[in-house]
Amino acid sequence: MDRLAKNKFLKQRRRNRVRAKINGTSDRPRLSVKISNYHITAQLIDDVNNHTLIYVSTVGTKINGTMTEKAAKIGSEIAKKAQIAKIKHVVFDKGDKLYHGRIKALAEAARKEGLEF
Fold first, then answer.
1. Which of 20, 104, 106, 110 has the smallest count of CB within 10 Å of its CB?
2. Distance between CA 3 and CA 13 in Å, rounded?
3. For the purposes of burial, counting CB atoms within 10 Å of the CB of 103, is it exposed (0-12), middle (13-18) or buried (19 or more)?
4. Which of the 8 DSSP states describes residue 89?
5. CB neighbours of 81 closer than 8 A, spacing ≥ 6?
6. How many Cα atoms occupy the beta-carbon half-sphere of 20 within 13 Å?
């Protein structure tokens, strides 16, 4: 197994390990976070009905700043939309990433705006 295939395999294993422990419902949806090199995406997902409730992304928006600042803005934005939809409690799905840096900035901004997880 070459290096790239091994890294992809290990990433998938970490993602599966996290997803085995958490599940989103309509009462407590899953806050899924995806961070690429240029964009940040966060969405609230009801896994029981396989439905995305709220979606926020930097794709197509003009949010300026560093990626950490963008993550914080996306976190506060999704929390505001969740409050409008009367969602207060969520389950945080960080995927295969560490709870550090951009992921942590997004989570803390969402908590500051009122989401509980």
1. 20
2. 15
3. buried
4. B
5. 54, 56
6. 6
pTM: 0.89
**59, 75 Cβ separation under 8 angstroms:** no
**Tokens matching residue 36:** 């690429």
DSSP code of residue 68: H
User: 18, 94 in Cβ contact below 8 A?
Assistant: yes
Q: Do the Cβ atoms of 66 and 76 come closer than 8 Å?
A: no
Query: Contacts from 10-13 at CB under 8 Å and sequence distance 24+?
Result: 11/96, 12/96
Q: Which domains does the chain have, with CATH numbers?
A: 3-112 (3.30.420.100)
Q: How do residues 44-84 score in pLDDT, each as one tens digit?
A: 999 999 999 999 999 999 889 999 999 999 999 999 999 99
Q: Which amino acid is at 14?
A: R
